[in-house]
Amino acid sequence: MDFNTVLDYVLVALMGAVGSILANRGIAVFNDGLRPIMPEYFEGKIDRKELAATSFAVSFGLVIGMGIPVSIGTTVLLAHSILLTDDIIGTWTPDTKWGSAIAGGIGAIYGVALMLGLSSIVKLFNAMPVNFMPALSLLGTPILLAFAAFPALAVASQHGAKKGIITMGVTFVTWLVVSKFAIWKLANGTTIQLDPTGMALLVAMIMMIFFAAQVKSTGDSNTQLVNVFAERVSRIKHNWIWLSLMGGIITVAASQLFFAVGVLPQQLLVKGDVNGAIFATVARAIGFVPLVFSTAIVTGVYATAGTTLIFAIGMLLKGQPILAFVAGFAWMWIEVQALNVTAKGLDRFPGIRDMGEHIRTALSDTIAIALLIGSAMACSKMAGNVGYFWVIGWWLLNRKLKKPLVDLAVGPIAAIALGVLLNLLRVVGLF
Fold first, then answer.
1. Mean pLDDT score of the chain
2. Is residue 19 very low, low, confident or very high in pLDDT (cuts 50, 70, 90)?
């Protein structure tokens, strides 16, 4: 193995170990849905078994349904495949010093096993009679453009359908105008064109923030929140060294271009569009700042990857692991120290503070429908029109289950299952 390959394995082991320790000690978790549950455990309202069960319930479906399936067949791991599992490992191990050590060990083993396992799965698929890996590459195709629609959905959710429709219309017009007119030919014959999708997303994000900023404050609720939960903010600051260490590790992984925080940045990295991935990551991070900071203040538990801007920092410093570690370490420290100041500043614009939850829901809905369409395209490539029947059928049946998979998971799992089924049918001569 060359140096970069060895470094990649070391990084996933460290992310697995440190991330699991953070969750075990209640310092940070990656799943936004788990973070509000942590104070219930700190205050004795739920026990360790209930915390572990909750962690498993809110994270496992995303790991097996989105994190791992979306990562299979690519050179870029989705953060969910490692960091959500860290949450599970950390909460399932005892809340003791030995428990932290056990969590770190299991997390490190899992990280390496994930890398080895994905490589083995890819080799296995390539050796099958029906190689459906090329079809799986279609899973993320709709996401690249559909992602630009999420700000309109967030605006509609927060400010009403009328403003959402206006945002959608402006987004579409931006895409058309940039596609047709943002093309320049230089004297040497080189053609430069702005990315229509990226510009459409940028305009949509600006409109989303503009509408949110119009909501005026009616009091000092967020400042009071900081005062009431000062002890919890202090708890996060007390653990800055652990958070900064994790920030440095994740930033190095991002600088190696094999680790992405979201499906859109991951798909862009797979296509070699590093600049596009950086922009998509920054756009995502901006939207999640209010959510991450407000939940941290209330719970005393930070996000494993912070506001996720460290992923963009890492990509900007690609191929420079030492500098990336220092930058990520420092940036995470800045985020932690800025909790009080940022929270008080957000009080002036409560609409922006409240925007985080709407963005989270809009992102989830947008990616879910895009993955469903991408899965249908993949299945159609594998088996013709019957592929649509397969994906739509399982999507609808999933809703009738007592414990349905999250919407994000259904399409990718159905596509992989169809690929395996087709190979079995080929063996018995039915396909």
1. 85
2. very high
Which pLDDT does position 1 carry in this prediction? Answer: 67
Q: 0.85 cut: is pTM over it?
A: no
pLDDT, residue 145, reads 79
Each domain of the chain, given as residue ranges in start order, spans 3-131+218-348
What's the rounded Cα separation, in Å, for the pair 21 and 105?
9
Q: What is the structure's pLDDT at 177?
A: 92
